[in-house]
Amino acid sequence: MNADRKTMKLFPHPFLAFILSLLLTGCFRNPSNEVSGNVDGKLSGKITLTGSSTIAPLITEISRRFEEQHPAVRIDVQTGGSGKGIADTRMGIAEIGMASRSLKADEADLITHQIAADGVGLIVHSSNPIKDLTAEQVISIYTNQIQNWKEVGGKEGDITIVHKAEGRATLEVFLNHFEIDNTTVKPDVIVGENEHAIKTVAGTENAIGYVSIGTAEADIAAGVPIRLLPLGGVEASTATVSSGAFPMSRPLNLITTDSPSSLASEFIRYCQSPEVHDLIRSQYFIPVSSEPNVAQ
Amino acid sequence: MSSTQSVKPTRSGQSTHTIRELTAAFSIWLAAGLVMAILAWILIDISIRGLSQINLSFLIDDVTDAGRSGGIGPIILSTILILFVTLSVSVPLSIATAIALTEQLNSESLLARYVRRCLDILAGVPSIVFGLFGNAFFTITLGLGYSILSGGLTLSCMVLPILIRTAEQAINSVPLEHRHAAAALGMSRSTTLFRVILPAAAPALAAGIVLSIGRALAETAALIFTSGYVARTPESLFDSGRSLSVHIYDLAMNVPNGGARAYAAACVLVAMLLVINETTALLLKFAGLGSTPHAGGCR
Amino acid sequence: MSRNDLILKIISRVSALLSAAVVLLILRFLIHEATPALREIGLYRFLTDPSWHPLSGNFNLKPMIVATLVTSLGAVLIAGPLGIASGLFVHFYAPPALATWHRRIVEILAGIPSVVFGLWGLVVLAPIIANLGGSGQNLLTATVVLGLMVLPTVAVLSDNAVAAVPREAIQGAAALGMSRWATVWNIVLPESRSGIVAGIILALTRAFGETMAVLMLAGNVVEMPTSLLSPGRTLNANIALELGYASTSHRSVLFVSGLILMLVVSVMVTVISRRRRTTQ
Lengths: 296, 299, 280
Hints:
Largest interface: B-C, 115 and 114 residues
Largest sheet of chain C: 2 strands, antiparallel
Number of helices of chain C: 11
Number of strands of chain C: 2
Strand order of the largest sheet of chain C: 1-2
CATH topology of chain C: MetI-like fold
Shape of chain C: globular
Largest sheet of chain B: 2 strands, antiparallel
Helix content of chain C: over 70%
Strand content of chain B: under 5%
Shape of chain B: globular
Structural class of chain C: mainly alpha
Order of helices and strands of chain C: HHEEHHHHHHHHH
Strand order of the largest sheet of chain B: 1-2
Number of domains of chain B: 2
Radius of gyration of chain C: 22 Å
Distance between the termini of chain C: 33 Å
Distance between the termini of chain B: 11 Å
Number of strands of chain B: 2
Oligomer: heterotrimer
CATH superfamily of chain C: MetI-like
CATH class of the largest domain in chain B: Mainly Alpha
Strand content of chain C: under 5%
Number of helices of chain B: 11
Structural class of chain B: mainly alpha
CATH architecture of the largest domain in chain B: Orthogonal Bundle
Helix content of chain B: 55-70%
Radius of gyration of chain B: 23 Å
Number of domains of chain C: 1
């Protein structure tokens, strides 16, 4: 395998690797990563997906249903982040990658297949009386020109700015929408996952943050003390994202090389079909009307 | 306090001694109390949030709806298998290394110093780096794929420093007379080691093993990249299997509304740890090796 | 030398070398991954750039090195005294039944996943510390929780080290009428010193390597911390936070933080073991 040879360079003592593996494992075999596509009109084989931890729970559910329909198929879903999914797909370690962001310019050799969308909304603590923020106010808050809720019509209190780590998809969507340069943002807390942002805002009365709308809705329903703020007069909810009225959202993508196997294409087509819309909604994401863009 | 009789006030004029004695006893009781209180706090916090979710079907059912419903049956099995691989590789390797460091090599020799230095550095490698390394080496270079085997091997690299340090201490703590007596009987070095030293060191060895089981059970980042995320029941060691800690992380930080289930899984993890510790203690008792190392003398 | 002895000798030495080889393999892996960034950017800029915005071409790691040192050393300052005290407690102060329970509790503490510690810190501890100002996610919160996490390492190794003190020494002290604390201070602690120090080093390195809990609690803002209440990001939290979405070049930069972390750990370990050898 091409990928094997490439990573072998990492450990230029094949002998050492061999001895180690013998001593450590006694015996080993190569896992069958091969895909055998259509046999007698029945799908069979095994495919591996890696990538975004945001998408992984959804794909796990979809693949379980797919496996029920095609008992000879096995789909292994792994995580490790969008970056890992893209790298693994490129190297052929995984047939399909999962990325919760759009591809960058240097990743144009790969093909994206959007399966769902995820809105990004601003959240504050539920005790915060603020009704609405204009785009200018949001920009001023995040660039530290406004430091107190009083200045935007709230009650007295220093604003705690919850921001995301560099590279995160929600961060990029947020920065692009408000046209903020990340180097000018002066955050008080930087978080990674959506749940982390929500727990931070829920525990800090004067905090503001931005997270996946689906996740926020699920947590609000479960009684977490946070509130979604409308954006430009549009209420932040999965419904408004779905109708296209809400402006901030990110795509949830599956990624392949330009020649996916027939099983992989079949699985992607299934992920984009209306048959799985209930699963997408149950994971708090938004189904997109699918344009069948899978090769063959 | 059953053991106060050993403190004998020597002379009435030594009140500073008594004060120092009391202060020391007070601080140590305070520190120990603090440790127990904080742990109790954490444990109670976990149980309050999680225990209500646990029943038999939670322990044996498959994972459904990303973990928000169903159970954690396959995940418990994967966790046990990963632990099994980890221990069966790391325990022999680290005991052998500890033997080399204590019995075979002069502790100031170049090799011993080099090995120790390496182990100290190994202990400081972030778990996510272990994960990425395990991914590159075990899953790709050695071709093991995302599998329980890869995960177990990565974890065994990770627990090596703890295991070797504790094993070294355990072997060092065997009184010199044991060795002298064995030598006087004309026993060879290896016979002495296996018949005298290792059995005498067993309780302390077990303490180290229990500590590294805890470390292995608690590990998340290293396993996401190696043993993987698949929540199906594993059929062999070459299958990918999600561990309990990965499941807890996923539910707590990634799956909306998964909090209560995360705490429930954490309760199961703590219970598993308790069972393992209890079994180890019982096994040691059964083997007639005493349940815990003790200094004695002062009781 | 009998044949068995020879086999034992070979097996144990090969094992020792194998254990050490793991470090070299990991180092090689890190260097391999970090090379593109090092070649393009050079090590120097990681210390002199104005800020950490890797996507905008700023790569200053210095605040993270400071945050890493502060949280890890702070954690050991907390875990060290508590751990040694708990090692002494089970041997000299606790009634046997309580000693057994104490040991068990410490062992459980060792097995709690860092994400659970992180959750506890986030939901319970951070709101308490937030009373001192801010969101409660700062270096102090991270240090306290990190201290709890490495406590079992110090406690178990101290316990073992105290157990290794020859019984005669303690009985001798008792025969001389020495009080309990005098025995502990003059005989037990000096005798078990090297074992306890080994435990502390292990705890320190463990604190350096911990990721998830620190990531959840430290606030992660990359700025030179001015007090324990300012947020900070550690080197390994940096990898975990940004790796997920990183593209190829960004990824390589993140591995430099891993490499620098290993460098910091090696320097610390070398300094401590030097000092230990010279003072002995």
